[in-house]
Amino acid sequence: MKLPRKTLEKKLFKSGYRLIYAVDEVGMGCLAGPVVVCVVAFTKKFFAKRHRHLEYLRDSKLLSSYQREEYARKLVLDKNIKYQLAFAYPKTIDNINIYNAARATMLRAINKLRIKHYELKKQSAIRSTQSDNKSIVLVDGRTKIKTLNMEQLAIVKGDRKIFAIACASIIAKVHRDKMMVRYAKKYPGYGLEKHKGYGTKYHQTKLIELGPSAIHRKSFAPVAKLL
Predict the structure, then answer these.
(1) In Å, how far from its chain's centre is CA 139?
(2) Does 25 belong to an annotated binding site?
(3) Is the residue at 222 inside a domain?
(4) Number of domains in the chain
(5) Alpha carbon of 174 to those of 64, 72, 139, 171, 181: distances in Å?
(6) Residue 209, annotated ligand binder?
(7) Rounded CA gap, 212 and 225, in Å?
(8) Where in the cell is it found (predicted)?
(9) Interacting residues of 124 by C-beta distance below 8 A, sequence separation 6+
(10) Domain presence at residue 214
(11) Is 69 annotated to bind ligand?
């Protein structure tokens, strides 16, 4: 089993960066529910430690639900990282398409977290602009985030290769899964608590029987053909 490495992050900190932001999204291929984006900001102090309790952390898709929840719990308790969640709901996805919705949500999440860091730096009497100029965003995927005025690296399969991005994927996945369990109570019968909105055979069968709910993505073919 190949685990994501910390080599890139350590190299970036060694070259003078003060903060590394890593961003990933979950739920892109689902027929129902939102896309959830998580951005995590890491300090140099985080990567100065070994973190034995995170030793086998990897892409959220390669972990069991229990493993994801345990890693997410440990990550959010760590004082040397900050994170921010943001959401693209079905109406937005249908209006501007899934790719644009996910990228706009990434932009929003990063900007929210940057504002929080500015506040922290001001309290410490350190100029926020100085810190932000030494920041970089690691983006999972082939393309950078348009209109984001920060240095970026787009990394294909970043959630499998880069430790920081894998962390973002885990927090996002755990949060989205909990959202879908809550949605299952509001929209019963589809099995959302089991498949989390993905287009399984069971989900598509129930979709035909019950018709689309308010959280189904009407622009996605299996849903659109039922309208």
Answers:
(1) 10
(2) yes
(3) no
(4) 1
(5) 11, 7, 19, 5, 11
(6) no
(7) 10
(8) Cytoplasm
(9) none
(10) no
(11) no
Give the position of tokens 């001001």.
122
127: domain range? 7-179
Nearest of 192, 195, 225 to residue 208 by alpha carbon = 225
Q: What is the pLDDT of residue 121?
A: 54
Any idea what the Cα angle at residue 164 is, between residues 83 and 166, rounded to 5°? 95
Q: What is the mean pLDDT of residues 127-145?
A: 78
Other beta carbons within 10 angstroms of residue 32's beta carbon come to: 26
DSSP assignment of the chain: -PPPBSHHHHHHHHTT-SEEEEEEEE-TT-SBS-EEEEEEEE-HHHHTS--GGGTT---GGGS-HHHHHHHHHHHHH-TTEEEEEEEE-HHHHHHH-HHHHHHHHHHHHHHHHHHHHHHHHHHTT--HHHHHTTEEEEEESSSPPTT--SEEEEETTHHHHBHHHHHHHHHHHHHHHHHHHHHHHHSTTS-HHHHTT---HHHHHHHHHH---TTB-TTSHHHHTT-
Residue 133 located in a structural domain: yes
Q: Provide the b/e sequence for 152-161 (b: ≥16 CB within 10 Å).
A: beebeebbbb
Average confidence (pLDDT) over 61-76: 96
Residue 12 belongs to some domain of the structure? yes
Q: How far is CA 163 from CA 2, 56, 159, 206, in A?
A: 12, 10, 7, 38
| pLDDT one-digit tens code per residue, 170-187 | 999 999 999 999 999 999
CATH number reported for the structural domain that contains residue 56 in this entry: 3.30.420.10
Q: Are the C-beta atoms of residues 164 and 22 closer than 8 Å to each other?
A: yes
Read off the tokens for 74.
């440990």
